[in-house]
Amino acid sequence: MPSSATHPAPFRSLMLHLSHIDSFTIPPAVTSEEQITAAHCLLIIEQGEGTIYLNHHYYTFQPDNCYLLQPSSSYQFDNGDSQSIRYTCIYFEAFKRVEGKAAAPYLESLIKDLIELPAPPISEFHELLFELKDANRQTGNFGALQQQLYFQELFLFLMAQPLQQQSLGKASMVDKTLRYLDQFYMEQITVKALASMAEMPPWQYTSLFKERTGKRPLDYLAELRIERSKKWLIESDEPLRDIAERVGFKDEYYYSRRFRQISGVAPRQYALSMKGSDIVMDWQGHRVCIPPAPERIIFYGEALGDMLALGLAPVGCSLYDASQELISALELPLPDVGKPFNDQLASALDPDLIISTNGDQDYAKMSAVAPTLSYNSWAPLGERLSTLGKWLNREREAVQWLESYQSGLNQMWRELCGDIRPGESATVLIYHRGRRLFVMGSIGLAVSLYHPQGFKPVAKVQDMLDAGRAYKEIAEHKVQQYAGDRLFMLVPDRSDSRAAMDQLLASPAWNAIPAVRNGYVYLIDSKWNSGDGYTSEKLLHYLPELLRQA
């Protein structure tokens, strides 16, 4: 077995060069301005605790945490503690050597899907960091050489653990073998070898594997091989013997028997029934063979209302991600497939397609149940409905719905032209995950408000829209900088977030905002912040009523 197959950066051909080092301090109770990295960066926390927003994800940090950022990464600190945050950014450039050509800048992630680095041995880490900083203060050629050497040593020290995966927990080690199976399923694989890779005895590995996937390792492997073989059955006329060997089965008769057990039909029957199927590329780059007109669809994640807009109802969903109003609109009980995804509940629904907004999370489990498409719920509404229409043989319905919706949206704003002033601005705010205040940008309610005939975004929100940013966390004392002529405050469900909102609404700073003094504040149920097709259509009736309130 290969020792590792999870690190796409070509380290053998990369050259790293230290650019410069900067240290920063953030005072207590301050949310920093968002920063964009111009080069690769090692961001190292030296003092303080809090949360950091990195490329649309939140991380909790403490001293000695390290983050590896590629060029054009964004980060923003939220310091809610009484202690200052101090951190250092070590900026460096990466160049890829190509035989016969000049080295070219390498701007991709050095380690795929890895931003937060495992905690290093503290004493050695502090010593290396001190030496690098000390060399940074020296001048002349010798000092510059020392800087580069200390940087290379520190970088290698920090990268050793993720590259060797020494500090992964047992659950992560099982995930490591899942990734291995996904890539090397065609190899001759034993439970003993997988357990060895996970650094645990076979009995413990089998137990953890079943807890993680709901299946024993070899059963999971057989289903994975069967799923991979379906592509070859549909796209080629190779003998079953060759297809069986290609996916890891030595015996075509055992392959056929397992295929029938798992799929309910023989391999060739499956191929004949699927020849009319479509092969599509989803958001995550998966090439998926789907039925020409899927009928039993599980929709997993957000934006369930997009299916309703096309006149379709799923056979199951994650009730955790669906609002009660959407569930009620279906007028029929909707089976829950769990959160996280429960493959046994999903299999019982006998789906012919799964649509997931969770990216690659649980994708292997889902695709073992039925063909699975990753759906980008963050994409603009028109793009989403067009994609869904193509997948579900509802292109005409998607075009008609979008034309009707756009016409209704334009008509709504024409009718409201006497209720808002030309150039009047608006801002959408929400407290989420406790006392954390967010400004909405390119998703949810804000999309409907920022219409050519509707409200304008203030300058700081326009910057978010220009950057394609869906939302942004801000400090409470900066709310005046983002406040438009009208304020739409989404009322959160969580009690701690609701308490934080109530406290802000009672504060002198809030009541000093012109929109508040003029009575242009709207408290709205957070369900209206969904940008799905069903909710967007309902907003056409709700917004006029809301804006005409005294």
From TrEMBL:
InterPro entries, alphabetically? ABC_transptr_periplasmic_BD (IPR002491), AraC-bd (IPR003313), Bact_iron-sidero_bind (IPR051313), Homeodomain-like_sf (IPR009057), HTH-like (IPR037923), HTH_AraC (IPR018060), HTH_AraC-typ_CS (IPR018062)
Where the record annotates domain Fe/B12 periplasmic-binding, the positions are: 295-550
Please list the GO biological process terms of this entry. iron coordination entity transport
- Boundaries of every HTH araC/xylS-type domain copy: 175-273
Which locations, inside or outside the cell, does it occupy? Cell envelope
Q: Which GO terms describe its molecular function?
A: DNA-binding transcription factor activity; sequence-specific DNA binding
Q: Listed GO cellular component terms? A: outer membrane-bounded periplasmic space
Principal location listed in the UniProt entry = other
Keyword Transcription attributed: yes
- The entry's keywords: DNA-binding, Signal, Transcription, Transcription regulation, Transport
Top-rank taxon of the source lineage equals Bacteria
Which protein family is it in?
Belongs to the bacterial solute-binding protein 8 family.
Which PANTHER family does this one have? Answer: IRON III DICITRATE-BINDING PERIPLASMIC PROTEIN (PTHR30532), IRON(3+)-HYDROXAMATE-BINDING PROTEIN FHUD (PTHR30532:SF26)
- Name of this protein: Fe3+-hydroxamate ABC transporter substrate-binding protein
